[in-house]
Amino acid sequence: MEAMDYDTEKPSKSNKKAIIWSVILTTLIVGTACVLATYFLHPDYGNTTPPDSEPVSKEPPTQGPPLEEIYRVECLPGQFPSEEQCLAKGCLYGETTVEGVPWCHFPENYGAYRMVGSREDRPWGFQVRLQRIEGVPSQFGGDIDSVILAVEYQTTNRLHFKFYDPGNQRFEVPLSMPGTPESQPSNPNYEVRMTENPFSLRIIRKATGTVLWDTSFGAFTFADQFLSISTKLPSSNVYGFGEHEHSSFRHDLNWRTWGMFSRDQPPSDGANLYGVHPFYMSLEEDTKAHGVFLLNSNAQEVSLQPTPALTYRTIGGVLDFYMFLGPTPENVVQQYTEAIGRPYLPPYWALGFQLCKYDYGDLDTVKEVVASMRQYDIPHDIQYGDIDYMLRQLDFTVNPDTYDGLGEFVKQIKEEGTRYIIILDPAIAANETTGSYPPYDEGVRDNVFLTKSNGDIMFGKVWPDYPDLPGGTCPYEEWEEAVENCRAYAAMPDFRKPATREWWTRHIVDFHDNQVEFDGIWIDMNEPASFVHGSVNGCGDNKYDNPAFKPRIWGPVLADKTMCMNAISYVTDSQPDLQYNMHSLYGWSQTLPSLEAAREAVGDKKRSFVVTRSTYPGSGRYAGHWLGDNTSRWRDMGMSIIGMMDFSLFGMSYTGADICGFFQDTTEALCRRWHQLGAFYPYSRNHNTINVAPQHPAVFGEDFALEVADVLRIRYRLLPFLYTLMAEAHIVGSTVVRPLMHEFTSDSVTWDLDRQFLWGPSLMVSPVLDEGHVELNMYVPKGPWYDYYTGAMVNRNVEQTWVTVPTPEDTINLHVRGGYIIPTQQPANSTMWSRSKPFGLIVALDSVDYASGNLFWDDGETVSTYENEEYYMVEFNAEKGSLRSTITHPHDTLVNDLVLDDIHIWGVSDNINTVILNGVTLEESKWDFDTTKRVFTLSDLNQPMKTDFILTWT
């Protein structure tokens, strides 16, 4: 048949008219049918509430040219596919010279799932069913065909949404989170919208219309061992995610991927470190803030890109999200800690200065170090014992050759005001041949250890040495030889088991009662760390140790430096699970049992103390955290500020880094500046490793020791303020170490500041972080601000500015913000003595002569003083010409013997002639007014803290 040439066949005019009318009628009929069908068949047909979805074409997306580079989301992450392999997965391929931009990427409007059926409304929100679109290629296999999205409107500012498999019980993190509400909030600050095909989710802030989440970007995938979701972000201001060494507090969105999987890894650029915190906060362009938490503990990664956007990828569990609407950064943290648990209130003495070294060598050396602290009157509240106090690094032992008499020494220093903390690693040695080792023997009997699938104990290797080594010590210097020939088999307790908690408590209490009366516990190596990969016998070929997709975490396999992923862990009596799911929860699971055991050991309902290396959301309820095995370098000192800011977001207010550095010999100049900064870590500890030079304050000589004593006395003077901030964190979830951005959110300069920080809202700490510098270019936000040392105002025009300030080697810059009152107390070389000293006040007036502050006070060590109302609270308020105190929560005995002795009022506008305290005119010998600096100082007041006062001046 001859082909017709359509270009030469011209319709007549009459035919044209017929065709046009035919097209018009057909369009009207089809259009009307579509409208009716859309109305009656829409999932929300019959609902009385407006639909939250935005229907689009049901046709699968078509491919086009490669996307503009900033919009690319990686397809087949970690695989580096060829163009042919990429296209076979339904993705696009486009080479680029820009580092980090993926070559193989998803096309625009790509989707693997669509909504099916009707939206099912619930009292708490709604749920929808998502069905995998037929014909969409699988990325890594094991795709789940049907997924449920449940959306809970939990509170006005908290939204919970979870993607899960209704056909199979997948692992969910056993973290206590807020339960499903019985009803929705009446007017939530967010709105949820969905697109049907391909499925996407949008979350909008109602007040501004800002889209906080938009998953129409990238791809949503839900497979057995690969779950992924991407979202556009409302701005490039992203903070959080951890634990990592971040080079800046505000994230670099220039194609950075951060793996999250607990690992025994000293801080290193790009590495996944000890803890896992899949939480971020975003500051929107209009300065409102929100936060997002992914409740997932499997190995995972988050990729950030300059769109701005991010992509989550994880290899197990479910996609369980919580969003917090703020709207301020502090609100976000408060809402987050309300969900995961408020930070615990450490004992007062835990805010004192602390000292530790891995391998002092023997007890005599420890005695000399403590004596040197006494010699120079350096505050010293806590002394540590690292693993060298043990016999061959065995938990619950004391080395009789090098630490004989440790128990008596601890009793002595406690009487002098210094507490003692012991280290405990989770690994329990299993190769003892010379008699019984009860921790292991009883652990076997009670079935407390991680096991293989057949019930046999799975052994790794950590610190404990084999018995009967030649000469009693390991003769090998090479690491691999030492691990093979010296390190004993080690069993890992499963702290989720009730039997393990009983076993752990029994041995901790026994050690305290019969060997060393310690005051708290430092738990280390609890990722859990192992010096062999997986186990002494390997892990075998299984899908858990060898998933098809491996997130960008360090090490060639998941079990690198830890236990096998197929080790059996306890979740509940009826639900054993795998290290594959539980690994990053190991340190978290050890924390509460350790705190409970320590409290039982010290007795009398004392709060005790736990500091942990490995953490997960919720760890802050029970413990503090130090930032790991840093290095004696200037850059590491600076990084510690970012680390503290990160952990403030994560709900862990009691944090700090090893002062002067852990690895390598420090220098006198570095150690001096680091002690200045470390005096303002909430957790303030000098600590370094074996085979490096000592770095305790006295080792550099008298001048250095006295300088450290001076800066620590500033800390101790401010401890009532720090303790009040810790109490506020415990009660309402506010931050203690606070980025300037939290207080000056509308000032865009502060969004990037991470070399200065605040204590609470009012004390600004600006350290020197660079070698050889004796002046500092310091940012001063809108004020007024006052120099801590002199009370002089920094910038009288109260506008934000950069200021170059002289900073001699023995000085750290401290400034107090106008409008705030800070409680103080005369310092001593231990909180045992300082807590009975007179109080003081720093009153920093704002531009209208107003200031306020408060003091929280309890006995400093009893459990749950706030919850049991066993505390004292007083508020202070200053306005033009007056200062008054109001006791808002009295206590019968806590402050009976305490007085307020000195008051420093800064920024007083008018000259002063007469001063009256509680109706009595004060003698001029008790007060002074500097007319140049506008500083008003009162002393020797002897005002009882148990009664209110009013001070006026004219």
Describe this structure as you would to a colleague.
The protein has 954 residues and is α+β, with helices and mostly antiparallel strands. The chain has 3 domains: 228 residues, glycosyl hydrolase (family 31) (Immunoglobulin-like), CATH 2.60.40; 274 residues, TIM Barrel; 215 residues, Immunoglobulin-like (Sandwich), CATH 2.60.40.1180. Helix content is 20%, strand content 26%. It has 16 helices and 51 strands. The chain has a 9-stranded parallel sheet. An 8-stranded antiparallel sheet has the order 3-4-5-6-18-15-14-12. Strands 40, 41, 45, 48, 49 and 50 form a 6-stranded mixed sheet that branches. Helix 12 links the parallel strand 31 and strand 32. 51% of the residues are buried.
What does the secondary structure layout of this molecule look like, with pairings?
Blueprint: H1 13-41, H2 83-88, E1 92-93, E2 104-105, E3 113-122, E4 125-132, E5 146-155, E6 158-164, E7 190-195, E8 200-205, E9 211-214, E10 221-222, E11 227-232, E12 237-242, E13 256-260, E14 277-283, E15 289-294, E16 300-305, E17 309-314, E18 319-324, H3 329-340, E19 354-357, H4 363-375, E20 382-385, H5 406-415, E21 419-424, E22 428-429, H6 438-446, E23 459-465, H7 479-485, E24 487-491, H8 498-514, E25 520-523, E26 568-572, E27 575-578, H9 579-582, H10 586-602, E28 610-612, E29 624-626, H11 634-649, E30 655-656, E31 658-659, H12 668-678, E32 685-688, H13 702-717, H14 719-732, E33 737-738, H15 740-743, E34 757-759, E35 763-766, E36 775-780, E37 785-787, E38 801-806, E39 813-817, E40 820-825, H16 831-834, E41 839-844, E42 851-857, E43 872-879, E44 882-889, E45 899-906, E46 915-917, E47 920-921, E48 927-930, E49 935-938, E50 943-944, E51 950-953
Parallel strand pairs: 19-20, 19-32, 20-21, 21-25, 25-28, 28-29, 29-30, 31-32, 41-45
Antiparallel strand pairs: 1-2, 3-4, 4-5, 5-6, 6-18, 7-8, 8-9, 10-11, 11-17, 12-14, 13-16, 14-15, 15-18, 16-17, 22-24, 23-24, 26-27, 33-34, 34-35, 35-39, 36-38, 37-39, 40-41, 42-43, 43-44, 44-51, 45-49, 45-50, 46-47, 46-51, 48-49
